[in-house]
Amino acid sequence: MTPFAKDYVENIVPYVPGKPIEEVERELGVRAVKLASNENPLGPSPKALRAMRSAAKQAHLYPDGRCSVLKAKLANRFGLGEDQFIVGNGSNEIIELLARGFLREGDRVISSESSFLVYPLIAQTCGAAYTAVPMKDFRFDLRGILAQMDDRTRLIFIANPNNPTGSYVKANEVEGFLSQVPQEVLVCFDEAYIDFVEAGDFPNLLNYVRGERKNLILLRTFSKSYGLAGLRIGYGIASKQLSQYLEKVRQPFNVNRLAQIAAAAALGDGRFLRRTKRLVSDGKLYLYRQFTKMGLEFISSEANFVLVDLERPAEKVFQALLKRGMIIRPMAAYGLPNHIRVTVGKHGDLVKFIRVLKEALKG
Ligand SMILES: Cc1ncc(COP(=O)(O)O)c(C=O)c1O
After folding, report:
1. pLDDT of res. 2
2. What is the pTM of this model?
3. Structural domains in the chain?
4. In Å, how far are 123, 143, 316, 355, 361 from 32, measured between CA atoms?
5. What pLDDT, in 10s, does the model give residues 88-100?
6. What is the atom index within ligand 1 of the atom nearest the CA of 234?
């Protein structure tokens, strides 16, 4: 170890993303299907694509550091002030800004087992302790989280819907939870998949932000429902005070020009959003039917992916699928060694996935 390295950084196990499709295609020499990173199978929003094409000519100019056009559109969309938004290089960057802005060595971050792996990662980069509370029936256990809180607890992450389970915490649960979290503890509801939610009892936390609740931030992204994952753009919604505080710890030009322009255009692409939602909703029903026929247990999902239990070590099945040009995500890193997570793709790709899954499970 380098003598001046921080021991808690040295101990970090790097995040392993889904296998890039280009890499698999190169290795196999065949066209592959990737259902591994919860991307949008319809590609980028067409309105975003058009906006980017014309904006590309200005790539020699620095972007607007304040993201003012996008913030104005978001403010208008949600009925909030422009100063209540913080835009980042993916919502991942906002997670990092929270760590940079709030965490000190020895602080505690709490979330759940089997949730987004970036939460423990950023806690570790700051030398903060990380507590992963066990799930209850594959759902966040908010009471369990409250029970773990101590006076070192600074930040709580709740992915709602959760990745990789697709489960969610309900409006009435959140109400009780928020009323018990002290003002000095920041609660981050990561709503990366909110556009896919169909459940009627899903919480609308914008009302809490409108009420200027000081210790709450919501995260959203353009990576999923708007198909802009490759551009890296997401945002946080919070009180004016909290958003403006986070502005202090970001880089001056943290969000690139094309991403800002594409995101602003995508927000106005209701047609694309509706098509995406329909595809995901229909695709989930298809997968549920197939898994049921195959006798596989799955978790009903409010997101654009489904977690399914193969009742055997999933790594072998993952490798067998990979050989057949099908990339999905084994879940051992999330503490679920028998599960895989499959992103809802186009119907033809889901049909192929089920066919090759049946083959792999036989072999
Ligand atoms: C729960 C959750 N939060 C945040 C993100 C990051 O999204 P972004 O692409 O905006 O950084 C993801 C991406 O997979 C996610 O699953």
Report:
1. 79
2. 0.96
3. 7-44+271-362 (3.90.1150.10), 46-268 (3.40.640.10)
4. 35, 43, 18, 14, 19
5. 999 999 999 999 9
6. 10
